[in-house]
Amino acid sequence: MINIILVVINVLVFFWEISLGQQIEPVLFNVAFVPARFWYLPGALLPNIITMFVSMFLHGGWLHLGGNMLYLWIFGDNVEDRLGHARYLFFYLTCGLLATLAHAMMNPESRVPSIGASGAIAGVLGAYIILFPKQRVTTLIPIFIFITVREIPAIFLLGFWILMQIFFGAASMNAGDLQSAGGVAYFAHIGGFIAGMLLVVLLGGLRRPTRAVYSDDRWRITRGSSGRR
After folding, report:
1. What does the pLDDT read at residue 107?
2. Would residue 69 count as lying in a domain?
3. Cβ–Cβ contacts within 10 Å for residue 203, how many?
4. Which neighbouring-strand residues pair with 152?
5. Residues 18, 20, 21, 25: is their CA dihedral positive or negative?
6. Which domain holds residue 75?
7. β-pairing, 218-223 with 146-153?
């Protein structure tokens, strides 16, 4: 339920962005998180924290929104099933905040607004690889000029994804700023992924939820897993 609400909020906020028209850039600069503003305006701590939350629901285009929401839709519900609604919301927002801080630490001089749900979603992916490493995920695999569809274990798909983030993140350290690095906040992805792996354990995600099963004319309590994908 919370996962669906998060998707809906992200989509609604994006439509709000579209409604801004030509004013979108100055508005986003004011409401989104900017690392340099965070480090060099310490007196504005509360506004900076607010912009961290706001930035989690802002996106830079249809592809940015669509890609993030696809990952959230595929992986988020299973993590929510394991954590429960309230803990999942806390988990998601905390991963987003820690991801933003990781980006700010690695890009303290950046004046480019940091927007997107990818840091928080990276936390979801980190949790998923801990909770459901063997769960098979349907994905597209390019083979030369062809594309095939295969089911592969989550640990391989998400492990490959985070290795790519680390590789490109290391390469981006030689770039002058975020724009020259392609506009991707790789260290937000890395920070969010690590935060998700740790938080899901701290929040008790490894304890499988109990569920009631009707058998032999009586209820009994068993332990089950919610890895559906």
Report:
1. 85
2. yes
3. 18
4. 137
5. negative
6. 2-223
7. unpaired
